[in-house]
Amino acid sequence: MMRELTYCLSIIAALSCLLFSGAHIASGQTGISQQPDAADSSDSNTHNLASKRTYHGEVEPLLRAHCLECHREGGLAPFSLEGFAQAKAHALTSLQMIQQVSMPPWPPSARSLPLQHERCLTANEQQLFAEWVQQGRLAGHPSLPSDNTISAVTPQTIQTKRPPLGEPDAVFELPSSFEVPAEGDDIYLYVPIPTGWAKDQWIQAIEFEPGVASVVHHASFMADTSGTAREMDAETKEMGYRRYGGSGFTASNTLGGWAPGAQPMAFPPGIARKVDRGADLVLQMHYHPSGRVEHDRSRIKIHFAKEPVQKQVVELIMANLDLQIPANRASHRHVAEYVLPVDVTIYGIAPHAHQVATSVLIEAIDFETGPTILLEIPRWNMNWQQVYVPRAPLTLRGGTRLRTTFVYNNSSSNPRNPHQPPQDIFWGEQTSDEMGVVFFDATTNTPEDLKFLQWHNQNRLTASREEAARHPRGKIEAQ
Ligand code: HEC
Predict the structure, then answer these.
(1) Is the pLDDT score of 145 beyond 70?
(2) Which residue ranges does the record annotate as region Disordered (predicted)?
(3) What pLDDT was estimated at residue 39?
(4) Over residues 138-160, mean pLDDT
(5) Which of 55, 241, 242, 347 is surrounded by the fewest CB atoms within 10 Å?
(6) What is the pLDDT of residue 261?
(7) Of the residues 70, 127, 384, which should be mutated to test ligand 1's pocket, given the most ligand atoms within 8 Å of the CB?
(8) CB of residue 251 inside a 6 A radius of ligand 1
């Protein structure tokens, strides 16, 4: 019952988020001169602030819901928005960021499926913040909150309603603390941690606790049964090993990830991932120097499935490895397709590319109903990658064609281009290479279907690898 209610509320919030943000974009983002909405024009109660937006009335709750998870003391963002003085000091740039839809950071466009943990302000909230700035950034009274209401249901308020996960069954910590320098490039560090599990484990949920939130940008989790991650770790004295584009081993499982503000990834009862006995957990830590030397020791907490597992979550990989991006091409489209051989339910979608990628569009094309956009990231930024979780698991029937379109800018107009002057770029894990891959967390109706799906998906990848190998990496012929 509770679950259904929460779900309904999420749909409403998602819809309002989509509708309002869409409307906002369509109206050219002015929005400042609009009349106060109906909630304001009720009784103003003799209190002369009642018709004005105030910090304590509306702005503080808005910032708390949408900004403070990063903009707080020790948070990931470079400054805090806690307290009236800070909010006032940063009000103008904040308004600018909000109106450009640059903050809060949320790469997917409004055309994407409704997603969990969506960071987005409704048109009402944008309006309200703009009015507060226009009306002189008033403080208001902490004891007399105004009658004005911001949209009471925000994605954040819904997300906190999920029942707590309880005590974890296993907790793993980085073996020692990692020193993140004050300055310099972002660091991708892989740290294998032995589980010592004597039997296979079914994993229902994973929680991540950043050690120092101001430097932990993201984390992803994998399992390795090959021992390769351990060997790479042993090559240097430093804890773990650094790599840029990929882990350097074939994970026996990927286990999702964490981004600031994300709730722990938890599957519904009866649905879980399997990790083989004896596996190492590998934490991929993405560190972003904060201006101060920090020592991070993050932890992950694992919850095993408590109920019999009906469905195993596996990873589907969609990629066209025959990627050749000619030098100086400012808009290079690269398409990968995969036709689902059986009915599949999708729980997570994680696109991955490097620096010259500029956008990604992921569609599902049903043979009767046509294409649906699953996820669109119009301005790709490698530093803001995560697993996107549809608000409701998405069922696609066998025969559905998944299609991914990555666009790359391999010209010198792309400030992120690792080659200046530009060079031909191919598929690979290094900084100087590119990728364009999408990972789906998926289940099937039956264990037989699951086996077939895994076999089929591997087969398609192998075919793509062979196709790519037929094209030697010389100079790309003019096309
Ligand atoms: C998920 C974390 C996160 C959330 C949520 C977030 N920010 Fe930010 N913000 C950042 C980071 C990190 C930066 C630094 C620039 C960057 O990395 O993009 C930043 C930068 C900014 C800047 C400076 C931009 C510039 O170019 O000078 C402003 C202003 C800002 N944020 C306002 C806000 C407001 C207002 C909200 C809420 C409506 C918000 N942010 C929500 C992480 C966040």
Answers:
(1) no
(2) 30-49
(3) 36
(4) 53
(5) 242
(6) 67
(7) 70
(8) no
Question: Quick one: which of 330, 355, 353, 324 has its CA closest to 474?
Answer: 324
Residue 279 has pLDDT above 70, yes or no: yes
Dihedral sign, Cα of residue 10, residue 14, residue 15, residue 21: positive
Domain spans of the chain? Answer: 2-159, 170-311, 313-469
CA 371 to mean position of chain CA atoms: 23
How confident is the model over 377-388, as a mean pLDDT? 88
Burial class of residue 177, CB neighbours in 10 A (0-12, 13-18, 19+): middle
- CATH 2.60.120.230 holds for 313-469: yes
Task: Say whether pLDDT at 12 is over 90.
Answer: no
- Quote the CA–CA distance of 272 and 399 in Å, as a whole number: 25
Q: Give domain 170-311's CATH architecture.
A: Sandwich (2.60)
Measuring from atom 11 of ligand 1, which residue has the nearest CA? 77
Instruction: Kindly report the length of the chain.
Output: 479
Same fold, 170-311 and 313-469: yes
Query: Where do we find the tokens 């039997």?
Result: 199
In angstroms, what is the span from residue 147 Cα to ligand 1's centroid?
Answer: 28
